[in-house]
Description:
By secondary structure, the chain is mainly alpha-helical. The chain has helices spanning 11-14, 22-35, 52-58, and strands spanning 4-5, 62-63. It has one domain: Photosystem II 12 kDa extrinsic protein (DNA polymerase, domain 1). It has three helices and two strands, in the order E-H-H-H-E. Strands 1-2 form a two-stranded parallel sheet. It is globular and about 40 Å long.
Amino acid sequence: xxxxxxxxxxxxxxxxxxxxxxxxxxxxxxxxxxxxxxxxxxxxxxxxxxxxxxxxxxxxxxxxxxxxxxx
Length: 71
């Protein structure tokens, strides 16, 4: 099953994750806009509304994708 890239996913895609509703999905997008890309999946716990329990439910379903290559 294809993982959801939390750096590029739309609100609709984010809401496919268990327990991620419109509010939390929008917070993920806002966090990304403000702070730049997530470098590791654990950083999603910095988003309000996502604690360790929720992270453990979704960690195998999400990815941060390929890091931009450093020159």
